[in-house]
Amino acid sequence: MRMSDLVGKRYKERPAEATLESHAFLLRGGYARQMANGIYSLLPPGLRVIRKIEAIVREEMDGICGQEVQMPVVQPRELWDESGRYGAVGAELCRFQDRTGHDMVLAMTHEEGVVHLCRNEITSYTQLPFMVYQIQTKFRDEPRSRGGLIRVREFTMKDGYSFHTSQEELDEYYQHCFKAYERIFARSGMPNVVAVEADSGMMGGAISHEFMMLTEVGEDTIVTSDDGSYIANQEVAAGEVEAFAEEALPLEKVSTPGKKTIEDVASFLGVEIRQTAKAVFYESDTEGKLVLAVVRGDREVNEAKLSKVIQTPPVPATDERIKAAGAIPGYASPIGLDSTKVRVVVDPTVRDSNNLVAGANEVDTHYKNFNLERDGSDAEIADIIMVQDGDRHSGGGALRLSRGIEVGNIFQLGTKYSAAMGMTYDDADGNVQTPIMGCYGIGIGRMMGSIMEARRDKFGPQWPMPVAPWHVQVNALKLTNETVKETAESLYQSLVDAGVEVLYDDRDLRPGVQFAEADLLGIPIRLIVGERNLANGDIEVKRRDTGETSMHSVADVVELVKTWIAESIAEFQPTD
Asked: pTM value?
């Protein structure tokens, strides 16, 4: 490819809308252009990176007996009604009607689609197990798009789905996929990727892992123990919190005029924040009851944990709904609430701590010395708090928080979708059974953005060889010099003939401009053809990926480059 023919501009100004360095380089380097919030077009360099990531993903999925399929992005409502997700999923699912008035959706994931595809193809246990996958466009009406390709609304995703006759069979295949994911991230040159226990969310299922690239700009919080024995997403992380137990004192009603927040109440009464009980209301559980989550005042409600308890996504309750249940916003507690109207879920930190300050369900009034066992014994006990830095893991070691970007996830779905959508097969005895499912996703565009975020300097990305848009860039300085022009043209053609992916900057621009744009393209090997070095029969070779600079003869450089490319790609191959 010649730069004079390459579609797309590169520019030095940092875009005002860029929140991450990778986002800035995505735009400055001519990889992508935003069409709308969270919706991007890819230019040739960006698409070349994406295609290389896809190729690695395909090789690894094929290597664990995956079969590639393709399913529609547009799906009829009926499939999502069968699974129960049409009404359960919120505004992130894009719903519309076709010209006949038929309800349709833009798929954000394809569990419904894959069961629909496979349920009429599979009739016998002899056809199981199997896994099908696709690399397909999806749409999720994400409310907080950010970071270029890190969080978008339209995205390309590899999603795979396996079907099994037993849990043991799924467990075994799950581990194969786990290892394949580790190989994918290693081969793509993505550093610092760890697998963490995770919440299955709307996907369902009992077991889930997320693959996180550790980075300070990540939007997920990861919890690890000092001794390395525990790692989990904060959404599911559990820790041991120090409680304080005292002799129970009599319940005492006190005036707290205008003091609604935990901080104001604690300060007014002269107690520590951890000596208070925080009441947070949510609209309803599956039975339509108002939900009251009670945690210690120094803790936050973990809504992912709470959703598993109440079996529905927690939605903050309105003041009107709270008052109708007999509670007062800002002064609420479980004391005196009608259990037929309110479901009270209390964290063990409240159960294990005595003499707390809690609301009295009266304006400007709180109770001192609230003790759950005595004053709220009908409450449901469940771990519903966010782990904090310094908590301890039950296996030992303090817990620490770090940040990460989710680049892949795997789930054990069980029969959530196959049962709901009537997928069955006949077992060896002729009995009708429901297949057990696994689900395996990777965000292709997010991988590209994450690699760019992790591998860069202040001038641009430093692409690892396996996913670089091109392997070599030729820069010709002063094309008005015939020797320079002839040598550069000959070198470019020799590289093409040798099967090397090469981008040739054949524009007669100043060296500073060429090099600045080369940095933004981040191509691993740069061959600089200049009249001074050519006088000695040499060209300058610069490694963008390592920063090394050296001189080599024109005659030897093609074979040298081929060797470097092969060695560099091999460095990213996992050893197992």
From this structure: 0.89
